[in-house]
Q: What sequence folds into this?
């Protein structure tokens, strides 16, 4: 089948026809990607090109989303600007869909809820960012903000900005989150100091730091779950 174009494949094996008959869940990642790029190149079909693209990132869609348009065009014959943009746009939509599911519930009550809330915003970033979400006593989200953005290993945080945003949103609780691009979820001494300072400052104005999460591409560390916020 490698030497055939997709049009010459049995109908049940063609990605579009398969999608129509069986739904998107029946398709592999490569088949879904092939529908996005529509065509391959002179030596391989869209499916085989998609398989090669995915293989280059160990079949990790998060890693694929980190590639630039320039990298996709340079490394894969048959991928031009439009196709590269289509791939990146589709992956971004997937992230926003995940975020929308949490926002639809509009409630963050557990560390898992918080992770799902922040994951689409931060999981694939090559640099550190700090975000805050502000909730009422029922866990209903009142506001979310990006607090700071830094380099590969750290970012500065102004606690006054966090407290002002919490007060402005009429929240009673704060959940802080930042990412570690390295994938190491172990809190640093700076992370510990920030958590302690924010917890103590929040208490002075009748606010509560509910949690501080550190996230990577697939996992998270929770100060609350670890018993480090009392």
A:
């Amino acid at each position: 089948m490698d030497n055939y174009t997709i049009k010459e494949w049995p109908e049940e094996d063609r990605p579009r026809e398969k999608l129509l008959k069986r739904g998107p869940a029946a398709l592999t990642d490569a088949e879904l990607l092939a529908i996005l790029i529509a065509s391959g190149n002179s030596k391989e079909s869209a499916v085989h090109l998609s398989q090669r693209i995915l293989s280059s990132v160990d079949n990790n869609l998060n890693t694929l989303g980190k590639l630039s348009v320039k990298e996709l065009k340079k490394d894969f014959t048959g991928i031009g600007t439009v196709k590269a943009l289509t791939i990146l746009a589709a992956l971004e939509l997937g992230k926003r869909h995940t975020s929308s599911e949490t926002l639809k519930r509009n409630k963050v009550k557990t560390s898992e809820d918080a992770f799902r809330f922040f994951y689409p915003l931060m999981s694939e970033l090559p640099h550190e960012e700090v975000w805050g979400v502000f909730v009422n006593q029922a866990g209903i989200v009142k506001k979310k903000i990006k607090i700071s953005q830094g380099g590969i290993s750290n970012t500065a945080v102004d606690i006054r900005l966090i407290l002002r945003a919490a007060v402005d949103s009429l929240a009673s609780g704060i959940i802080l989150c930042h990412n570690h691009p390295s994938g190491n979820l172990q809190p640093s001494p700076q992370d510990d100091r920030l958590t302690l300072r924010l917890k103590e400052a929040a208490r002075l104005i009748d606010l509560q730091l509910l949690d501080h999460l550190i996230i990577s591409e697939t996992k998270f560390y929770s100060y609350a779950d670890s018993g480090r916020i009392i």
User: Anything to note?
Assistant: The first strand starts at residue 129 and ends at 135. The two ends are 61 Å apart (CA to CA). The longest helix spans residues 81-105. The mean pLDDT is 86.
